[in-house]
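Bench notes, afternoon.
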Amino acid sequence: MNRLFSWLSDRLKLPPILHHLLDEAIPGGASWIYIFGSVTLFLFLLQATTGTFLALYYAPTPDHAYESVKFIQEEVPFGAFVRGLHHWGASAMMVAIGLHMLQVFLYGAYKPPREPMWIVGVFLLILTLTFGFTGYLLPWDQKAYWATQVGINLVGSVPWIGGTLARILRGGAELGALTLSRFFAIHTLFLPWLIMFLIAGHLFILRRVGPAGPWDKARAKRISEPFYPKQVFMDAVAMGAVFLALVVLVNLFPAHLGDPADPTDTTFRPVPEWYYLFYYQLLKYSEGPWEPVVTFVLPVLFFAILFAIPFLGRKRERSPARRPIAIGAGAFFLVFVFTLLGLAMKETAALKKTDPAVERGRAIYAKLACAGCHRIHGQGAQVGPDLSFVGDARDRDWLIAHFKDPQSLVPGSIMPPTRLPEPELEDLTRYMLSLKK
């Protein structure tokens, strides 16, 4: 390995480049508080890598999108693991970029001469949120379809230009094939290039203006360490810890895939990803004349303030204690967001979760007049076995085999074979399996 590096180094003149990249002085020395930027970059690379592998099997059409994701999840070797990493990596990236911006804000590291770096960072936050929104539709299940429908409807409520924006996003009047292919192209082609361009700009500005270091000027002058080896070590440990945490999450909570998207099922109640939940909660309080304020005015105002933060104070003082208005406003915003988030999570957890497949199975049970022979919780005849707790006694394979040929499993049974298409047979089985103590 050393010989290969020496061979390359001789030809590519690597030492000056490595010196420039690794020997950058950090005022105040290395610190664990500086790891969030590197972790965010690591998570973006992880998303790009896992997304590339998923794209090998994904088909961005309404007829095949759901089945291709299901194929990845169930048939492709390590497919569920890679999809799980992509799923949890998206949430982790939101957390990492949020912590990174919070650290920069707390340390006053957006003040001159680092205003351009902050502005590029805000653009990166917007792109990361757009990644989440466009990627949400791709599994093409009920949650993806209806949550995206709600999101586009919100865009459509923007005064004057909302209708045009919504039509551009949908690729037409309705959410369908053009929407899916459009979101897939934005998610996998446009956004990665844009975000890589901005990351390069962010790092370029960092190299030109240098790290901000601590807000204590005396400490920053007294201590100085190069980026390598201590900060590199800390960043590497943080990346490894985040990756291990993602692996644990993937194994404990695999990425969910609901029922296929059904545009005719208007009873489905979508819930967005957790990082949009506080805004989702705020929307509940803004019906009527306040709706345009929340759907348009507040988001525009929020990002306008975010871009303007470096220019709102002329003093270069970075200590939090000497920036009470800025720190107070930031703390108020966090309390506001986390209060809404807490309320939304509490209400979401209290929602009665009904599996649509179970409901369809219940309807099929009624349609076939199964209650003419079977009883469930006191309802129905007692000619056949009571099915009140059949989910505790039988598994899926037994039930399907029994529906197809009852006499093969229960000799002498008077139940006729159930001749249903496979999806309906699966729904009826899901209903039976839901009948438990």
